[in-house]
Amino acid sequence: MSRRRIRIFKRHRHLKRYRQIISVLTRNGFGLLLDQIGIYGYLRMRRKRPEEESQQTMDNTRLSIGERLRRSCEELGPTFVKIGQILSTRPDVFSPEVTSELEKLQEAVHPFGFTAVEQVIREEFEEDPDTLFESFNREPLAAASLSQVHRATVAGGHEVVVKVQRPGIQEQIEIDLEILEDFVSLLVKHTRYGEFYDFAGMLHELKESLNRELDFRREGENADRFRRNLSKEPKISVPDIRWVYTTTRVLTMSYVDGMRITQTQALKEAGIDCRELGTRLAHNLINQILRDGFFHADPHPGNLAIQSDGTIVYLDLGMTGQLSRIRRRQLSRMFIGIAGQNAHQVVAAISDMGTMKQRTSLSQFEREIELLLERYLSVPISQLDLGELLARIFQLAYAYKVQIPGELTLMAKVMITLQGVLDQLDPELNLMALMKPMASKLIWDVWSFDDIEQTLQRGVHDYGELLRHTPEFLLNLQRKIEDDGYSVQLGIKNIERFQKQLDRITNRLSFSMILLAVCLIIAGLIIGTGFSAGSNPEINTFYVLMLRVGLGVAVIIVLGLLLSMFRSRKP
Fold first, then answer.
1. 462, 369: one domain
2. What is the pLDDT of residues 417-467, one digit of tens each?
């Protein structure tokens, strides 16, 4: 079946939902955009004339875009509520006014009935809730776009919470995503915004995020991974997962009795120091991002419970972010560049992290970043909003056609959310001020002994491969020239001058190769000193002596190279 026929089939199969979505968007003031992308013609629908529009539609057009988007998501149900929440994590694409409105969707979901809860549990375990659990509270503790949570008791009297997926939500999400594919293709085809904002890439990320969150086993695995990472962190934990009572659509974990992190009065009455609590939370989230490369991507107050002894418990681990080791190094470089107001370093790090969609002026981009840093860093550090600064940097990157990976914009959103939590705990707490003392540690982590050793190993391997393949490449090139009868004639004027210049280049290259070899040896001695420290004093003394000799040789070579370069400038 052709692609066009598949689209027509989907269009007719989901026609009712299409009409519902268009009706809601039109009522909330997006009719002009829908007309511009040709959706009415695509579905063979007639758009109402301005005089036919209802008073509600006219009133809604006076609202901000963010408010209209939020209202549309609320009216279209759980799928679009979740989509809106995910879009609120893209401060690089949407303005703060839009993302702040979409954040309000966190509380805008109604619970579903207990009959539906029974149906899901029966389908997953072939047992009723009252049989599977010792007790099961029919009233939900909380409701979200994809699920809701109930308290229960398992064997042994242990209290747990049971997260149950909304019935039919997977099928509804599949339908809505198919419809959104058509919307995105029309946006790209009929507007300049579609390609510029890479809505196709955003939809792909949206699909992946929703698929991960719909599998509750993933959330359980996330919790176990967090528990391992947090094992040495003081007073920070996650709920225990009860795997016997967990499936793709049902997640059971230990019950956590705690206060919301923003209930500052209750925290103070419990004897908890809000400043220390905020500092501990900030340091832990920074470590999650830069040390572990695995972080909680939605640390809003509802997902942070505080126990009576001050322990922070992370809840709802469905949305997480991951950063590779290379990405964490690049991110560290960017943070260090921001702290040092080094626009060139910031742009270099962003260029390494992102993807250039088109040719762009990096020098102009660097100038814009420099002006941005000057403006933000001119205020006292206690007033600097790091999350907002990151969002502005990523917005600039987007404007200069540098596509930032989703996990980095997610990280920026975490910083914005975290600063909001810190403001409520103690207005004097500032994320940049807390992060600055960690800068030296970040540099050390980037250049640890393990990293040096791995870098040297990769370098030796790459040079070895180059040396191994070069003779074969040259031999093949020679044969091809001989077989095809190629001949090259070169005529060079001032051959003696050219030969002298070539000699200078050869000498410098030789010096550089020797210097590289000495540096490799010195690096090996550094690593050896680190490994042998404390094990054998005589071996350690030998390593130190050889290290000094190596450094002396390196200094002599560098001086010789500089002298050679100085002489070569003389006529």
1. no
2. 898 899 889 888 888 877 776 655 655 555 555 555 555 555 556 656 666
Q: Answer yes or no: is pLDDT of 507 > 70.
A: no
Catalytic residue among 92, 176, 182, 298: 298
Number of helices (H) and strands (E) in the chain: give both, helices first.
26, 13
Do residues 454 and 564 both lie within one domain? yes
The conformational region for residue 489 under phi > 0 = left, psi -120 to 50 = alpha, else beta, is beta
Question: Does residue 316 lie in a domain region?
Answer: no
Read off the pTM. Answer: 0.72
Both tokens of residue 175? 């339908």
In whole angstroms, give the CA distance from residue 486 to residue 481. 5
Cα-Cα end-to-end distance for the chain: 76
Task: Please tell me the distance from the alpha carbon of residue 547 to that of residue 450, in angstroms, as a whole number.
Answer: 19
316 noted as active-site residue = no
Q: Are residues 442 and 455 in the same domain?
A: no
- Considering the domain boundaries, does residue 119 fall inside one? no
Q: Which residues pair with 313 in a beta bridge?
A: 237, 305
pLDDT band of 51, cuts 50, 70, 90: very low
**pLDDT tens digits, 392-428:** 898 888 888 888 888 888 888 898 889 889 988 988 8
Claim to verify: residue 88 and residue 30 sit in the same structural domain: yes
State which of 156, 189, 222 marks the end of a domain. 189
Q: What is the DSSP letter of 341?
A: T
> In Å, how far from its chain's centre is CA 32?
33
Query: Can you give the residue range of the structural domain that contains 473?
Result: 449-481+497-568
At residue 16 the predicted structure's pLDDT band, cuts being 50, 70 and 90, is confident
477 and 564 share one domain? yes
Residue 197 lies in a domain: no
